[in-house]
Amino acid sequence: MKIVCIGRNYREHAKELGNDVPTEPVIFLKPASALVPAGGPIRLPAFSGDIHHEIELVYLIARRNGKAIADRVTIGLDLTARDVQQQLKQAGLPWEKAKSFDGSAYVAGTYAEVVNLPEGRHIDFTLSRNGKLVQQGHSGEMIFGVEELIGHVERYMHLETGDLLFTGTPAGVGRLNAGDILQGTLLGEPLFELRVE
Ligand code: ZN
Predict the structure, then answer these.
(1) Residues bordering ligand 1, an ion, CB closer than 5 Å
(2) Ranges of the chain with pLDDT below 70
(3) Rounded to a whole number, what is the largest CA-CA distance in the chain?
(4) Which H or E element spans position 5?
(5) What is the 6 CA–ligand 1 centroid distance (Å)?
(6) Ligand 1 midpoint to CA 62 (Å)
(7) pTM of the predicted model as reported, rounded to 2 decimal places
(8) How much distance in Å is there from the Cα of 78 to the middle of ligand 1?
(9) Residues ≥6 apart with Cβ < 8 Å to 149
(10) Which superfamily, per CATH, for 3-195?
(11) Residue 114 and which of 32, 91, 92, 146 are 20 to 30 A apart at CA?
């Protein structure tokens, strides 16, 4: 199983970090060891003083008749050591230390079947921190849609059943502090509540 992530897939988020809007998808990976166990907690690592929340639509991939499809969708957190990422970006180095550490990914356990969603319906999602809405977005705001992302990723790496695809975060990312409570919703339904330690 692999976790494929897309960076800078929402215009306002690319801008808030001072990045250009990309002309093709930005891809990076997290290992399976990055996953936070169901129900949390999120543990802030000692090596960073600036772990950011990024709420994202996460698609569970299935491979049918030789074709990778976005079978089911949920929400997840792409936790990012922003201080470390800034240093790596400035030095032109890969992002793994900032993006792929133990506990850097959370995936809610409840999925919606993509085929059952009304055609043309945008898949909306939110993140609240300590009861305050901090991020909201929907699939229609993605620069590259999920089909396009799958096609692009597969130019470089085969997607298999069980792989996860994080599709980028909308604006509103920010620092987590010990004691924070994070709540995520998908299509108006609460899917997770996590404590930060
Ligand atoms: Zn992200």
Answers:
(1) 54, 78, 169
(2) none
(3) 46
(4) strand 3-7
(5) 6
(6) 22
(7) 0.96
(8) 5
(9) 6, 9, 25, 165, 167
(10) Fumarylacetoacetase-like, C-terminal domain (3.90.850.10)
(11) 32
